[in-house]
Amino acid sequence: MIVSNTHTHVSNVPAKERAHSRTYSFVHGNHQANRARLLISCPDQPGIVAHVSQFLYEQGANIVHSNQYSTDPESGLFFMRVEFDIPDLDTHKNTLHNQFQPIAEKFAMDWKLSLANQRKRMAIFVSKEEHCLRELLWQWQNGDLYAEIPVIISNHPIAKKTVESLGVPFFHIPVTRDTKAEAERQQLKILEQYQVDFVVLARYMQILSSNFNQIYKNQIINIHHSFLPAFIGSNPYARAYERGVKLIGATAHYVTENLDEGPIIEQDVQRVTHQYDIEELKRIGAQIERTVLARAVSWHLEDRILIHQNKTIVFE
Amino acid sequence: MIVSNTHTHVSNVPAKERAHSRTYSFVHGNHQANRARLLISCPDQPGIVAHVSQFLYEQGANIVHSNQYSTDPESGLFFMRVEFDIPDLDTHKNTLHNQFQPIAEKFAMDWKLSLANQRKRMAIFVSKEEHCLRELLWQWQNGDLYAEIPVIISNHPIAKKTVESLGVPFFHIPVTRDTKAEAERQQLKILEQYQVDFVVLARYMQILSSNFNQIYKNQIINIHHSFLPAFIGSNPYARAYERGVKLIGATAHYVTENLDEGPIIEQDVQRVTHQYDIEELKRIGAQIERTVLARAVSWHLEDRILIHQNKTIVFE
Amino acid sequence: MIVSNTHTHVSNVPAKERAHSRTYSFVHGNHQANRARLLISCPDQPGIVAHVSQFLYEQGANIVHSNQYSTDPESGLFFMRVEFDIPDLDTHKNTLHNQFQPIAEKFAMDWKLSLANQRKRMAIFVSKEEHCLRELLWQWQNGDLYAEIPVIISNHPIAKKTVESLGVPFFHIPVTRDTKAEAERQQLKILEQYQVDFVVLARYMQILSSNFNQIYKNQIINIHHSFLPAFIGSNPYARAYERGVKLIGATAHYVTENLDEGPIIEQDVQRVTHQYDIEELKRIGAQIERTVLARAVSWHLEDRILIHQNKTIVFE
Amino acid sequence: MIVSNTHTHVSNVPAKERAHSRTYSFVHGNHQANRARLLISCPDQPGIVAHVSQFLYEQGANIVHSNQYSTDPESGLFFMRVEFDIPDLDTHKNTLHNQFQPIAEKFAMDWKLSLANQRKRMAIFVSKEEHCLRELLWQWQNGDLYAEIPVIISNHPIAKKTVESLGVPFFHIPVTRDTKAEAERQQLKILEQYQVDFVVLARYMQILSSNFNQIYKNQIINIHHSFLPAFIGSNPYARAYERGVKLIGATAHYVTENLDEGPIIEQDVQRVTHQYDIEELKRIGAQIERTVLARAVSWHLEDRILIHQNKTIVFE
């Protein structure tokens, strides 16, 4: 279960970055000062919705969106996401939190309260191919991804120019078999220093260690360049070409211990024919990859994803 | 607003038909004896969800699905669909209805309570082209459309064999400019006699009168063979060919006074190229038409559609 | 390489069937009396197209469609499909065949000349689920699949009524582990007796023997209910559900020795969400299966598919 | 008919630009030094393919791709695109041209010979919204669009920074009702000075004059933000919202006298629901627009598009 109480940051971000992030005006920003999201998962039983909605009503909240899902109404698990507006959210925040606690306990809830205007801090890892990185940066610049991007890390220097032209700090940390452990130590230190909430692997071609995955459990999103579970592992386009598939795809998923087997967030495909060679498959695939990854990241940012066992519940 | 109190039928259906409809076992049928759906629309204000869910909780209901939508949380309209299980629904039904009335009044709700195991009675109108009719009959036979089909009416005799082989009464009512009014009188009489709830125009190539539309207001679903609002009117495939579009489509919509301008329920498209002549567009289009219509009909049967002004809210 | 000289049948089809097949008027039938298709594969080198088109020109042919593909213009394999009209095709057929022989030899061609108005004889194998069978029969009835269907075989009696209502002979041949060899002997005897050109496995849930596959090499089309190579083997929908994929699919392929690993002809997918249980995945999947299979069969019937190694070249 | 003899430029491009364009290595560049494309349209009759392929064979060419289409083999128009490799293309070019002339005359061909390594010079016009511009620039930088971009013109200063960071000259030419004629004079002068072959309107929100369209006849590509012919004219997203469509789309087309009615090159759509407000439709639509426009531009660059009456033949 991923939901947990919301974490707040003491803001000691590098000044340069903070100044920068304020230069973009985000489309969603204005009217969301009083908007919050409540994410819940608990054993299903009658009365959950009644209690939650009664609570919100008493707090003066107006529900804007509400989604729920039960694996089985009789004895399954119940998942809920409520988006609501509440006057003077900033001053109410702690009260809201404390007063919900008894309901959470009554229903044995795993829950999280998240403020819409508090941007998540997203680090991006990238290797040589920039298409996914660029799509994220572009949508971010354009206000379509409501996040902070405090830092971008790469095992190659290629993306440096692209990244720094936007005023985002870029760290080049080469990784070889021998330096891998040390490289991860540096990466983790940077992530901590920049108070990163979650990490996006935007075609980062290194496998992270168990330890790294544990620290950012359910907080690392990867894009795999195939329609999983087809073509797990390396060189999926070459293998798609060999197999002669008529559609190629891409999969965004949370990273777990088992390579390419974490919970799938989003997938998409595109039609190809016998005429396409591996290079052309890669070129078409790159378009799918960047679209799929950007969609998954936006859902993560908007708290639309709950994880249950090895699957995601996405409340679109 | 379409929602209204549920209409119940005194069951005087022709015996043959009733016997017939019982011969199919519907996949959704078994576990739905205690399932109901509440459809609500009303001015948005805080407290609606709280009151509705509190009410259901007190009735001992377990919410299975719940969807809501507001055109504007501040001063808009609010739409809700709740699907729930409640023990001994049959005996509770009237109580449920009566006890909800005060809440409905408090919030000025337009509302409808619908029992999942009470199949809607659907008439199908068809002309010469059978592909949409067949898709509906097939999905119905297969248990994918949970409906009664008491009667099928056509202005041509072509579909007679297909229809009667399934034991469904078929009426051939020819329509010419001169006989149109009389033909509609016959049609309406048959619909009444067979206690039809709603009508599907499965490529029925006659325009119904204002009077007919009024009697079955928001209860007639048509399939138009284009991606509306492109190619309103006749011969859409020929016009799509002339225009050189790269996608052709189909649109299922509720019928209103204005031809092809009623609320859209569902649309889909398929890619075509310069190589396709009009006949091939028709052949491809036929596949889209039957898929789109069947999807729209299934949503109508499951009370997933609310109408607001000239648009639909579809709770999938 | 699949292409081979065209096989012609002495027509001793059961009278009933032949009478039947004439009762449908096929849309493509009329104008195709003089239409032929030439399928070629050979090592690529300059001059192939020049020689083939010069030959057709001299024969008085008018090229209607022409497609070609080369794995590598320098040293690869070349594939070509030419569709052409030629006056008095019936009387010219043998001449055409003989006079092309020297060109075929010059370029070491594997080739086949196929007459558009000579319908291929297709047997359908089915088990319990009828949706793919029905789609094929329906499109066939409607003239969209230009084939003869001399016989349908099943290991269950379920489809008997559907099949015989269309006047097509139906054979129920049960298969158990013990009777499998004998059952295949019967099946093969029937296929021979009805002069079947190719076999469609329309959700036939038995694995054919090596021997069977050899006899109808590249002439058996199967529909697998997943997006191959994901979920090879049994219960793909259950496994798709377990894995939490966001798209489900179906794959039509030629059958080879290795289960679900033959050359892919066509694939398609549809979006699903966490809300769909296994039954719903099956229901949605059934729609994809029948569409994908019907498309693959129509391409086979129109000689649009060449096989190269384990892949198909589809000239749409 | 658009095809015409190829136009060659005396190269007097501004030095800065030329230096710049050489800094990108294009993926398709290396192996295309000896590749040419022949585009033909003429009345259909037997022998065209035979003569063309015989000619290419005699010239020592190896055909790489060949596509053809006939509106009607009996008395229609014939369209052909042949892509071929020929040794020492540079030295052969004029000979090739001259020697093909007799064949072209024999069949009354409209034709064009185009060298794959000769990049077309593309100007981009843009207003305030940068998403289409950026997609084109990005794909161009990445080598996916094999073009020169000598100049970008806008009626707003917004895109200046984006454009100049890539070293491409940017001209801000404001347009008001009063200055429109003068503005067009300036635009045309710049296009001439930079030897522009064709113009892409990447969300350029001004209507070009008849005169402008005539000068760049069939050489102006526009992106319209709807699925044409639905929502011709202004504010298509607002109108799509009003109509309640379930798919929104975008259309790339050549510009003609009649607004939004020129030959359609490419279209695509994406599913939306009742939940999307106009702003969200715009955001989703922006993704479709940039994909559709980039695809249309790449086909234009690769000489894959022929225009016939008001329709395109796209040889993919």
Automatic annotation (TrEMBL), chains A, B, C, D:
The keyword Hydrolase applies. It catalyses: (6R)-10-formyltetrahydrofolate + H2O = (6S)-5,6,7,8-tetrahydrofolate + formate + H(+). The active site is at D260. The keyword Hydrolase applies. Its EC number is 3.5.1.10. Pfam families: ACT (PF01842), Formyl_trans_N (PF00551). It comes from the Bacteria. InterPro entries: ACT-like_dom_sf, ACT_dom, Formyl-FH4-Hydrolase_C, Formyl_transf_N, Formyl_transf_N_sf, PurU, PurU_ACT. One of its GO terms (molecular function) is formyltetrahydrofolate deformylase activity. Pathway: Purine metabolism; IMP biosynthesis via de novo pathway; formate from 10-formyl-5,6,7,8-tetrahydrofolate: step 1/1. It is an enzyme of class 3 (hydrolase). Coiled coil: none annotated. Residues 37-118 form the ACT domain. Keywords: Hydrolase, One-carbon metabolism, Purine biosynthesis. CDD domains: ACT_F4HF-DF, FMT_core_Formyl-FH4-Hydrolase_C. PANTHER family: FORMYLTETRAHYDROFOLATE DEFORMYLASE (PTHR42706), FORMYLTETRAHYDROFOLATE DEFORMYLASE 2, MITOCHONDRIAL (PTHR42706:SF1). Catalyzes the hydrolysis of 10-formyltetrahydrofolate (formyl-FH4) to formate and tetrahydrofolate (FH4). Belongs to the PurU family. NCBIfam families: PRK06027.1 (NF004684), PurU (TIGR00655). This is Formyltetrahydrofolate deformylase. It comes from Fodinisporobacter ferrooxydans. The gene is purU.
